[in-house]
Amino acid sequence: MKTINRKLLAVSLTLVMTAPLAVACSKGTTEDNKTERVLKIATSYGYDEEYLRQQFTEIYEFANPNVKIEIIPTMDDMVRYKAPAPGEKMPDPLEKLKEVMQGDNPPDVVMMGYEQLPDVIDSNLLTQLDPLVTKDKFDTTGIVPAVIDGIKNVGGGKLYALAPNFSSSALIYNKKIFSDAGVDFPKDDMTWDEVFDLAKRVYKEDGDKTINGFNFYTQSQMDLFYGMQMYTAPLQLKMFDDNAEKMTVDTDQWEKVWSKMAELQKQHVFPEVVDPQKQMNRQYDQENPFAYDDFMSGRLAMGIINYGQIQQLVNANKNAANYKGFTPIDWDVVTVPSHPEAKGVGGSIYMNGIMAINAKAQNPEDAWNFIKFVNGDDWAKLKSHSSYQLVSRSKYLKPKDGEDFHMEAFYKVIPAPIDPNTKIYQNNPNIYQVQDLGRQQFLNVLNGKITAREGLKEWQTQGDTMLKQIKDNPNGPITPPAPAGAAG
Q1: Which of 111, 220, 301, 370 sits CB 3.0–4.6 Å from 177 for a disulfide?
Q2: Key word Phosphoprotein present in the record (predicted)?
Q3: Domain boundaries defined on the chain
């Protein structure tokens, strides 16, 4: 993230001095304006204090010189800087946050990740914001669906938090590939099957170059097993039960997904499974500086791209003459496809700066003023110049530097439901070995060695064995079970 420099701070100070922000004091009296107060902000993020101040609090403190902000991190440095040893249980930043929120000197504002929000809400630790929004007539209508609907969904329709920034993904497509194939461009609100059908129609073998229709990434080194989680997440397919004691993958729904992906692979919808050596050669291709990226190399018609990647493509197009082997790409984006049973749900959406009021806040007035300020109109206007994150207020979401593309595609979607097993992943690092068993079986399916159901049955069996090891020895090393002969 870019550090807020002096010039930017001067601009922000001008804004807060001239705009009617209603944040200078909590009760509106001159006496309160002069009273020095402390606003405590606890965070379970892994960011250091300097970043949090630059990103969220410095401008507020300029506007409110009588308010001193104290930041209370709850993520242990052991988690931030050290990779866990095999079987090592790491401190849980969320549990520490909840403990601090209920302590003798509780924070006023709490900041957390989206996946942590349901737990804190269910623990009745947050103040509902809807009454405050109504009382102060705080405008939430301009907040994009990706943020406001996503937060309300985890609160059972109620608003317990706000987030000033987010990142999101969209479906990017190469216009020339579609035009050359005589196929209509993709459009918003397509289903996954409609996208796959388009992908089949634009597949082309052109000498040594193959053009595939779609991938869940644009970069060729990424893995289809992990990429298709964007497809499965809205379907709420679970790998194991809520207690992580029994696998739940030997099912008709899982078989349908794996069989579909394997069939699409055969139909050249996805790029081929590249062997490691060929992949290494691509990354160091002297004739193509973007060989690692299928879309930028013209090998992919459509892919899922994060907003933060757009700037690289824009810069490459502008400086194409300086890149040997690169041809400028005429492109645009549409919304990430969704399932008919979960229309408009999907994409990789990450909210940055989710903030809420602690139910035990000692200074709830300043806490609400801070949240209103950082999630308000002027803050969004100031922060909208970032090339890597999006502000939550749609009126300031416009392409930069004279570019012209369908920006709305990045914020017209709603996040997929949070995986209920997220906490299990966080507290049991060995669980990822169980997931990798599935990846190995999935590769066997893609390579035609076994059927989808055979792969899932083997994953179920091996996973059950490993889950039992984890339960019996949660902090100890785990021995992967021997694969069955069917795995080949």
Answers
A1: 301
A2: no
A3: 6-166+350-410, 169-220+271-334, 422-487
Minimum mean pLDDT range among 89-93, 180-184, 227-231, 293-297: 89-93
Give dist(CA 163, CA 371) in Å, integer.
9
Establish how many alpha carbons lie within 13 A of residue 78's alpha carbon, considering only the half-sphere containing its beta carbon: 9
Task: Report the alpha-carbon distance of residue 365 to residue 64 in Å, rounded.
Answer: 13
Distances (CA, A) of 41 to 92, 163, 182, 437: 18, 15, 56, 41
Q: Which residues, other chains included, contact 234 with Cβ-Cβ below 8 Å and sequence gap of 6+?
A: 338, 339, 342, 345, 346, 416, 417
* Strand-by-strand arrangement of the 165-167 sheet: 350-352, 165-167, 390-391
Amino acid at 193: D
User: What is the spatial distance between Cα 238 and Cα 254, in angstroms, rounded to a whole number?
Assistant: 9
416, HSE (Cβ side, Cα atoms, 13 Å): 20
Report phi then psi at 283, rounded to 5: -65, -25
Sign of the Cα pseudo-torsion (139, 141, 145, 150, in order): positive
8 A C-beta contact, residue 288 and residue 325: yes
Separation between Cα atoms, residue 385 and residue 176, nearest integer Å? 30
Q: pTM for this structure?
A: 0.86
Beta strand residue intervals within 307-454, DSSP E: 331-334, 350-352, 354-357, 390-391
Of 59 and 83, the structure prediction assigns the larger pLDDT to 59
Contacts of 455 (CB under 8 A, 6+ apart): 258, 441, 442, 444, 445
Per CATH, is 6-166+350-410 categorized as 3.40.190.10?
Answer: yes
61: Cβ contacts below 8 Å, ≥ 6 apart = 67, 68, 69
Rounded (to 5) percent helix, strand, coil in the chain:
45, 15, 40
pLDDT at 9 over 60: no
Helices within 204-343 (DSSP H only): 224-227, 229-232, 252-266, 276-283, 307-318
Please check the confidence at residue 286 and state whether its pLDDT lies above 60.
Answer: no
Burial of residue 464 (CB within 10 Å: 0-12, 13-18, 19+) is middle
Q: Cα–Cα distance between 337 and 230 in angstroms, integer?
A: 10
* Number of helical H runs and strand E runs in the chain: 21, 12
Report whether 20 contacts 383 (CB < 8 A). no
Two tokens at 378? 């002027």
383 vs 390: CA distance, rounded Å: 9
Contact call for residues 94 and 119 (beta carbons, < 8 A):
yes
Residue 206: beta bridge partners? 209
